[in-house]
Automatic annotation (TrEMBL):
Pfam families: MFS_1. GO terms for molecular function: transmembrane transporter activity. Keywords: Membrane, Transmembrane, Transmembrane helix, Transport. It is a multi-pass membrane protein. Its main location: membrane. GO terms for cellular component: membrane. It is found in: Membrane. This is MFS general substrate transporter. InterPro entries: MFS, MFS_trans_sf. Coiled coil: none annotated. The chain crosses the membrane at residues 45-70, 82-100, 112-131, 137-159, 171-193, 205-227, 278-299, 319-336, 343-362, 368-390, 402-423, 435-454.
């Protein structure tokens, strides 16, 4: 069976786009009409995927807020129990991801993504009724199983809809919408905590119950609005006409010649693991996730215990750094897509972390330390879209893209395990081992990106066949 990195025959391409040539499918619309179709895809695809990702991030990270709102006392979270509750989520989250991008191809994005969203929403409601810490441990395992398929599924789905130099802006908007969970969860939780006593339930329990209900409602909305792959778009509640669907497919084929999916073959799929750059991208994702999850899970704790802010002030002060990260994320994505660069953006963001983390960890003045929080948060979160796009721009073939998405996000899950353990209670209030560990991940990121940029530039200068396609060039 042929590898999916091989060039598709004209018959395969014509079958995928309704028997119409690539040029004819593109030229059927004026440039203005083409922009309108893409904007319609943006509104329908990026927005709803980002909304459900916001639920995903909020649901997996709200234990940090619940901890300082009384959960720690009620569930007797002494010693390493809180760290275990945070960590155990990532074990099934990593293990179940490799199959996610295979399943999403077989079942379709709409059914798969909305189905697991509703399931983890129901699981979240259950968090509000646990009586022992080990019960929460079990529910975190189940949550990890259900959430495992969402992010790699979204990364893969977005990469099938957009050309290489449109993708980072869409990844950025998707992640910005999702990361608003981190910005809003503290403020929302403060409001929900006021429900404490209602139904004889503590305020921290209502955080899980209400956010679980919101997730279920959003999952139901997604079952109507999420669209399938471009070649199936004309059947997704008549989102696009058959001609418009052909136009989308033909753009991807012209850009990287992999719009047509080959039959699945397990050995060919696993053979993609022999490409070393896939594991370099995975290492970048791991380092980025270590920083991101460390901030998401422990920022409320650090602000409360290390900077000695009140619970109310802590919950409100978690929002501004995420807003700043969103702004940097978007404008750097616009710049990167316009100039066709990825690596320099990642290096710049990592340098911000190398400035912010020492300020947070070693400075004495609280105002300066809080400024360090801004830089550290920007570094961690603004690096996610360029890393996702870096791998998507330099990989060809649908199944190779699926494999790479799974390894990338699976490695991010390993980063989540690391991020959930680097800040330990016994290191309070300075948390210096955690600060040093996250500084180290930024150094590793810079080194790996420099190596990739060097290798890609050498391959581009040599020319010829790159990634199985004549004329294809790596994005630096």
């Amino acid at each position: 069976m042929s590898s999916d990195t091989e060039k598709h025959t004209p018959e395969q391409v014509d079958q995928a786009i309704g028997g119409v040539s690539i040029d004819a499918s593109v030229e059927a619309y004026t440039p203005e009409e083409q922009k309108k179709i893409i904007r319609r895809v943006d509104r329908r695809l990026v927005t709803i995927l980002g909304l459900l990702y916001m639920c995903s991030l909020m649901d997996r990270t709200n234990v940090g807020i619940a901890k300082i709102a009384g959960m720690s006392t009620d569930l007797n979270l002494v010693g390493e129990r809180y760290n275990l509750i945070v960590l155990v989520f990532f074990i099934p989250y990593v293990l179940f991801q490799p199959l996610a991008t295979v399943i999403i191809r077989k079942t379709g994005p709409r059914r798969f993504l909305t189905g697991i969203t509703i399931l983890w929403g129901v699981c979240m409601i259950g968090f509000g009724f646990v009586q022992r810490w080990d019960q929460m441990l079990g529910l975190r395992v189940i949550l990890g199983v259900f959430e495992a398929g969402y992010f790699p599924g979204c990364v893969y789905l977005l990469s099938t809809w957009y050309t290489r130099y449109e993708l980072q802006q869409r990844n950025a908007v998707f992640f910005i919408i999702g990361s608003m969970a981190s910005a809003l969860s503290g403020i929302a939780a403060y409001g929900i905590i006021q429900m404490g006593g209602l139904g004889h339930l503590s305020g921290w329990r209502w955080i899980f119950i209400m956010e679980g209900l919101i997730t279920c409602l959003c999952g139901g909305l997604g079952s109507i609005l999420i669209v399938d792959f471009p070649e199936q778009a004309s059947t997704s509640f008549h989102f696009l006409t058959a001609q418009e669907s052909s136009f989308i497919v033909s753009r991807i084929e012209a850009d990287r010649d992999d719009a047509v999916i080959t039959p699945f073959n397990l050995s060919s799929y696993l053979r993609n693991a022999l490409d070393p750059k896939i594991w370099a991208f995975a290492l970048l994702a791991c380092c980025s996730a270590t920083n991101g999850y460390a901030i998401a899970y422990f920022l409320p704790v650090i602000l409360n215990q290390s900077l000695h802010y009140s619970i109310a002030k802590t919950q409100c002060l978690t929002a501004p750094p995420y807003v700043a990260a969103a702004l940097v994320m978007y404008f750097s994505a616009v710049f990167a897509d316009r100039h066709h660069i990825r690596g320099p953006i990642i290096i710049f963001n990592s340098c911000l972390g190398l400035i912010g983390l020492p300020l947070l960890g070693f400075e004495k003045n609280n105002g300066v330390r809080y400024f360090g929080v801004f830089l550290a948060t920007i570094s961690a979160y603004a690096n996610v879209p360029p890393i996702l796009t870096y791998q998507a721009n330099n990989i060809r073939g649908q199944w190779k893209r699926a494999f790479c998405s799974a390894t990338l996000v699976g490695s991010a899950g390993i980063g989540g395990i690391m991020g959930s353990t680097v800040f330990r209670d016994q290191d309070a209030p300075g948390y210096r081992p955690g600060i040093i560990a996250t500084i180290g991940t930024n150094v590793v990121t810079i080194v790996v990106v420099l190596i990739l940029m060097w290798r890609f530039s050498v391959a581009n200068r040599r020319g010829g066949v790159v990634e199985g396609k004549e004329g294809f060039r790596y994005t630096l």
